[in-house]
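Sample A.
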Amino acid sequence: MDTMRDRFISTASRLLDEEPRLAVVLADISADGFAPAARAHPDRVINVGIREQLLVGAGAGMALAGMRPVVHTFASFLVERPFEQVKLDFGHQGVGGVLVSAGGSYDWPAGGFTHMAPGDVALLDTLDGWTVHVPGHPDEAETLLRDAVAGEGRVYVRLSLQANREARPVSATGGFMPVREGRLGTVVAVGPMLDGVLAATEGLDLTVLYTTTVRPFDAAGVRRAAGVTNAADVVIVEPYLAGTSAAAAGEALVDLPHRVLGLGVGRAELRRYGTMGEHLRAHGLDPAGLRERITGFLRL
């Protein structure tokens, strides 16, 4: 299976042939993959080098000129480093574009903390009007990317090396998809966390919802799931900062007695970088760690 980043490069390259408004703006990352597209469309595949503030500003400038920019680099350099440009050049100026990140929270541990971005979605959550997609499979990434390019809004597509074994039906309109139904609580699995959540909840009387779109948050979907359980207890398992969507779930259930547990990447910096699998275990996001915390919270 190809990776989400591989699929992004191949899909965006094809879209450049099909969509004359589309432009791809790079900061060295994935430049080799886009080399054939750059030769075919030298005026619409722009590599600004390792200048991330310029990367975002150039993309927003293209949007002001009527183009549909796809702006790409690692998450830490796409959201965190040039956050002021994301906030002002896209948000304040009221233009649309597609930010596509790679690297996830810790896809390349050897790169160190500079290349880790567990706080990217929480940071974007401070801004208005962003749609946030977190695909769990390359097929889902392609569908969400195509929808994002065809639209006009501000969209963040978060890619990762973490992936589920199989793709699920997804759409740009989002919504939480029931994968299992149970009576003792609800677990929401975001993107690449689904396989681990399914393994962790095997044999438990729980509803499992799957989503690749976390913003806007599907409040109605959480309420529907709470309505078929005996308690409005919700666990949200996200592949980035723990608790990022806990407030949104709480707001969805504000008029119901409820409890919400947000599971994800912890705040503490893990300085022995290790492997991606070791990071999952260290943050309790492997099936064993998830099962222990889910059953403890739901008193199963």
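Sample B, a different protein:
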Amino acid sequence: MSSHAILTADTHRDLRIRTDRAAELGDDMMMALAVPSEFRKLQLDYPILFRLDLDRDKFTAVALFGFEAGENLFVSNGHWDAGYRPLSVDIQPFLIGGRRDGFEAKQVHIDMASPRIDRDGEGVRVFDQDGRATPYLERVSAQLCELDAGYQDYAGFFEALRRHELLEPLTLDITLDDGSANRLVGFHTIDEDRLRSLDADALGELHLSGYLLPIFMAVASIGNFAKLIARKNWRLRHG
């Protein structure tokens, strides 16, 4: 169960965070939420897919790490084997929250129940001995701001995708080297045929809104399925 608290130097002066990577630290995830502003970086390593929440009738974007629940093919031996981690992963166990007094300024919160809270004094410090933010916390704070800004633009991005009918369901059948058959369902991708058919006005609108680049990055990311399958086959051979 989560235990969120506002991060303060007075309360968390000696707080340390584990930054290594392992399933027991919460990295046993098949996917993570992503925002369009980071698609350019994500598309170098991960397939970028879209999921529809039927109850809320809303889409979210995700970076895919594996093919089954709890599978992360990028984590091994305490490391994350990719040049970039999604912001929603890299900021943990921190999050951004609104102020109780109703003002617009937001604050950094921390989940004190997270397994990343280091109890042995060997993790990365959040504040220095004088109560100042360490470079680690400054980096996380910047990432939280970037992630929050990305979420603010979520509705506009997906409204544009729906308006131009650019999302189509994905069904991916995979046969692994051990002969096992796997099927990936429940996701959407960019409809490339529909994208190619858009006229200049529609493309211009998407470009001016800042949505055309992440759309193309999502299309390019589908090529990473071959690399993800290769990771899966390697894991099957080597454990």
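Observation for Sample B: Residues 135-152 form the longest helix (18 residues).
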